[in-house]
Design a protein that fits this description.
The complex is a heterodimer. Chain A is α/β, with parallel strands linked by helices. Chain A has a domain at about 10-145 and about 165-200 and about 250-260: Vaccinia Virus protein VP39 (Rossmann fold, 3-Layer(aba) Sandwich), CATH 3.40.50.150. Chain A has helices spanning about 10-35, 50-60, 70-75, 120-130, 150-160, 175-185, 205-210, 215-220, 225-240, and strands spanning about 40-45, 65-70, 85-90, 105-110, 130-140, 185-200, 245-260. Chain A starts with 10 loop residues before the first helix and ends in a 5-residue tail after the last strand. The radius of gyration of chain B is 10 Å and the shape is globular. Chain B is mainly β. In chain B, strands 1, 2, 3, 4 and 5 form a five-stranded antiparallel beta sheet that branches. Chain B has one helix and five strands. Chain B has a single domain (about 5-55), classed as N-terminal domain of TfIIb. The chains are: A alpha/beta, B mainly beta. The interface of A and B includes residues 67, 71, 78, 98 and 100 of A.
Amino acid sequence: MTDNQIRFDDGATYERYMGIWSQLAGETFLDWLAPNAGLRWLDVGCGNGAFTEMLVERCAPVSVQGIDPSEGQLVYARTRPASRIAQFQQGDAMALPFPDDAFDVAVMPLVIFFVPEPAQGVAEMVRVVSPGGVVTAYGWDLLGGGFPYETLLAAMRELGMTVPEPPNPGAASLDTLRDFWVAAGLESVETREITVQRTFADFDDYWTTVLGAPSVGAKLAAMTPAELAHLKELQRARLPIDAAGQITYSARANAVKGRVPTTH
Amino acid sequence: MSISPDFLEILRCPACKSKVELKADGSGLKCVSCHRVYPIRDEIPVMLVDEATIEEK
């Protein structure tokens, strides 16, 4: 494992850094998906359970299985109220521990760029979803500048720092998502952009949130005070800070959905 | 140990997709076909092929 690999082992810190953004994107995503109640859901890459919780709250699932490779994230997920319905286990998106046709919906929430071989992950979701069921995903448009902390990453790059990247940063581009879904044999494939907005109370709120990031937090902690001050100023200059000191900005994700053919 | 029979019913070996059974001592889930044993840690099944051990009969 290299220093630039992104791992998520601390659920609570991750919640503040990314969970709030995920929640916003997830709500818009579910409005678009508009699923029926009473379905059997699979949440692939459920992480700390932020999206799983939303599923249980909003979609009245009959069951939810959540899988994720990170034990630390799952331990946090299991403390959520969703765990009265949802069950969690450690698992690999490319080798799902489920039988064929076991679910009505499989979803990868903000995950597809972390899957080493996304096409294999999509094929596995198609396998475990029954004919007529839905395979769906949404992910930050990393290459299109849609990541919630793009300003931070841009400043780090400017200072010559290596920015941690998932294995497939382009996997959630709109055309790439569509291509994966069509190539997997899914039908009625649709895509859409999801733009979400978040407000930080002030720059310190933003900065302490960023320092807790699982991906870049360690890199920031390793910088000298002078380097860190420079990085801070680069962002202070570029973030949209309003008269009240609040910072409000947007992030963008892309979403895709398709149906498993009834003849598969 | 809080693994319910319903839950076991939906779990499969990620390597060969066969059924898994709870070991008598509750320490893991064993594939009925390829005999891989997946550990259970903090009540969470670790269904990762890399974490499995192969246990003969």
